[in-house]
Design goal:
The chain is built from ten helices and no strands. The chain has 403 residues and is mainly α. It has two domains: 200 residues, Up-down Bundle (Butyryl-CoA Dehydrogenase, subunit A, domain 3); 132 residues, no CATH class. The chain is elongated, with a radius of gyration of 71 Å. The chain starts with 5 loop residues before the first helix and ends with a helix. Keywords: Coiled coil.
């Protein structure tokens, strides 16, 4: 029998250990697959229950459909993982078969060859090539075992994720079942309350029809009151807008009235000036006519004692309207009338010309004072000036008319 080197023996021992570990892992994976199948069966039963509950309660259809889809997807993923695990098991079996064949070849080599010396074994090229080939196969087997371990770890992590997802789906399904139960109980309570409420309403309608009518009337009145109140609020808003517009128009009208008053006062002042000028002209004309008439009377009549007792017209006018009053006594008039006609005519014409000059001088002075005063007075005082002038001129005219 040919003895193998120590390195090959150690490698074979390691391969045996790894093979045993792979077998244990395969057994564990099979047990986990069985557990998953049981879990799948439980999930299918719960799915059937959820489908039955879904038919009764349409409000949670979308959620149940989603859960069903997740369960189906989990089932598909589990099937894929089981297929992957079966493939790995086949790979492990092939690896074990290759190891067994390698061992059988090694045994055959041991049987066929005599035990050579260490020097001949080192020098012989055929044994060396065989050892190289076996070393290569061993390395390939080790590499495949490492890849299988990595794949197994990945599958384990995926299996744990799937288990967590299954647990979450189960918890969610339990929550949905509890929620469905609670909603069912609430619906039953609401149905009982509705039935009691309907019975109470029927009793109230039968026993207290008048109260129901009063309540309906009050409800109608309250609706009418709300409608009227809303209408009044709208009308109040419209009236407020109208009042604001009216106030604005009134303010504009007041401003227009003030301007018109000022214009009217100025027009009145102008008219009063014109009237005063006309009155002064009329007074001057009347005074000249009376002077001529008096002159004709004095020229026609003789001097008499009765006539000497009457005051002359020019003296009266002069004493009433002129600022300087001249009192003509009887003796002076008699002397003037007895002396000559020319002296009488001179005394008759002189006071009227003086009166005319005095009035013109007063008007010019008053106008200058008015213009100087208007520069520093307000609008109200401007309206008072023509009134004062009109009163003064009316008093002068009335005095003349009395004479």
């Amino acid at each position: 029998m040919m003895e193998l080197p120590d390195v090959v023996k150690e490698k074979l021992i390691e391969l045996d250990d790894e093979n045993n570990q792979l077998k244990a892992e395969v057994k564990r994976l099979r047990a986990s697959i069985i557990n998953k199948d049981e879990i799948l069966n439980e999930l299918e039963e719960e799915n059937i229950q959820l489908l039955a509950a879904n038919q009764k309660f349409s409000s949670v259809d979308a959620k149940c459909v989603q859960l069903e889809q997740t369960i189906v997807s989990l089932r598909v993923t589990l099937e894929e993982k089981t297929r992957d695990s079966y493939n790995l098991m086949h790979e492990v079996e092939t690896l074990t078969a290759s190891l067994v064949s390698a061992r059988s070849e090694i045994d055959e080599l041991r049987r066929s060859s005599t035990p050579p010396s260490t020097e001949e074994n080192i020098v012989e090229p055929s044994n060396k090539e065989e050892l190289m080939r076996m070393q290569k196969e061993k390395d390939d087997a080790l590499f495949e075992l490492q890849e299988a371990k990595k794949r197994i770890l990945e599958l384990e992590s995926e299996r744990e994720d799937l288990i967590e997802r299954e647990e979450a789906a189960n918890a969610e399904a339990r929550d949905m079942a509890r929620h469905l139960k609670e909603t069912r109980e609430q619906m039953q309570e609401l149905e009982t309350e509705l039935a009691t409420f309907r019975t109470n309403i029927n009793i109230v309608n039968r026993g207290n029809s008048m109260f129901v009518e009063v309540c309906s009337a009050l409800r109608n009145e309250s609706d009418k009151y709300r409608a009227d109140r809303d209408k009044l609020i709208e009308e109040k808003a419209d009236l407020a807008v109208r009042v604001a517009k009216a106030e604005k128009s009134v303010a504009d009208a007041q401003e227009d009235i003030e301007t018109l008053k000022l214009q009217l006062a100025m027009m009145k002042e102008r008219e009063q000036k014109k009237d005063a000028a006309k009155v002064s002209e009329m007074i001057n004309k009347a005074s000249s006519d009376q002077g001529q008439r008096l002159f004709s009377i004095l020229n026609h009549n003789q001097f008499t004692p009765a006539a000497s007792n009457r005051p002359t017209v020019p003296s009266v006018i002069h004493s009433v309207q002129t600022p300087q009053r001249y009192v003509f006594s009887r003796s002076s008039l008699q002397r003037d009338l007895e002396s000559s006609f020319n002296a009488a005519s001179d005394t008759a014409e002189r006071p009227f010309s003086g009166l005319k000059k005095l009035r013109l001088a007063d008007n010019n002075m008053n106008d200058e004072e008015d213009h100087s005063r208007r520069a520093s007075i307000s609008a109200s005082e401007l309206r008072r000036i023509p009134r004062k002038q009109a009163r003064r001129r009316q008093s002068e005219v009335f005095q003349f008319m009395r004479i």
